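Re: duplicated header lines in exported structure tokens

Our pipeline writes sequence and tokens for each protein into one text file. With two proteins the header for the second block appears twice in some exports. Here is an export where it did not happen, for reference. First protein block:
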Amino acid sequence: MTGDARFEDADAAPLRLRALDPDDLAVISGLCQDAVLPASELTWDRRARRLGLLLNRFRWEDAPAAEARRREYERVQSVLAIEDVAAVRSTGIPRGDAETVLSLLAIAFEPGEDGAGELVLTFAGDGELRVAVEALEVLLRDVTRPYRAPSGQAPRHPDD
């Protein structure tokens, strides 16, 4: 082989990440920005104390390579799981509506006492999910192979 290995030469391995503190959560939040999902793909298992979202996540980690190679942008289906959930409240999010598509903008943690707190998931259009947790533990796992982003473009925001 001639030359050093480059980031762009790496295979598209599926992500498996766990956030146990706000710094870890910031990484997951960035990777989940602009993920879309039908409102029906939000599931709270009270018995297991877990909230799950099946996301169609834009592959931000691959965007620079796509631009450099002039190839198509990709999305991947990912599961975002929040553990140790005590309660879930929502505003601006219709429950179980398969017709409503949500676009996740950010995930933040508001600490409380003894490691507990609230995760705040902010969606486009003023939707918000507040998840009371006993401890911060968020998992992100890609569950499909990447596929061509239907728009063929990277998501844009007014201040981009």
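Second protein block, exported in the same file:
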Amino acid sequence: MNKTLPYKTKQFFFVLIKISIVVGAFYFIYNKLANNESLQFYTFVDFTLKKNVFTPKNIILLFFLSGFNWFFEILKWKTLVAFVKKITFKNALEQSLGALTASLFTPNRIGEYGAKAIYYTPDFRKRIVLINLLSNLLQMAVTVILGIIGLCFLTTNYEVNLDYYNLAIALAISLMAIFLIGFGVKKSKFTIKGLSLEKVRQFILKFPKKKLLLGFIFSLVRYALFSFQFYYLLQLFGVDITYFNAMVIITSMYVLASIIPSIFIFDVVIKGSVALYLFTLIEVNELIVLSIITLMWLLNFVLPSIFGGYYVLNFNFPKSED
């Protein structure tokens, strides 16, 4: 006997799941702010108020930078997805912010892949997951390229205690792993839910180079925006540093924080730890660094995830005819 849940019961559970995601995301944000051992929330608020950070002019500029950061992320998503399905900027906005909220408390934001995929019918979902992977790889490529340049200047101009032996071993292992994976993709017939590694490789190779170039440019613009935002916050807190010297440390910080294996829940802590070490090279106060890291997180993740909560609550599965 085939027993199925009544339509109203399914709708009730569907609404309950959406509410749970939003509540979980907001609780995660609250918990990070209320139980941060590195920086107590009241200390953070009191310090920023004393530094007079929240003037109308500063708030407008900081919001402007965060807004354009996400504008180019949404534009990148719209551009890349157009390879398999054309969507409007509004659709891309809904998917990007909704996926951010849904993935905020998942390890390494892995939930973003599934969250974006469910905006599409099943026949599109595998390709959407691959496009999301490409989007993240483009952003990572910018981070790594600029980070390596930054690290070169950093090690030249400052006395940095890096274990070069272990670093060389890690690099050799990484290159070997990339080679083995690349070789294995060609030879392997291994499949995941009907999607073989060879098909993944073919999909990436057939992806329009113009769209990849645009995606890379949008990733580069995003990087320029949030790195300048970090520099601007340094200025607001009274740190006397040139833009070039700041970028040397900022680019090094982002690449080092990106390659450290982490769970996204502790992402702020890791970035804070790396930043504390690097900014001690120019004798920046620890409280300033932790306050800036927290503000960057609030502006570029918490704020858009609040808007994303609206899209999660209003989400409906796509109709098959779409």
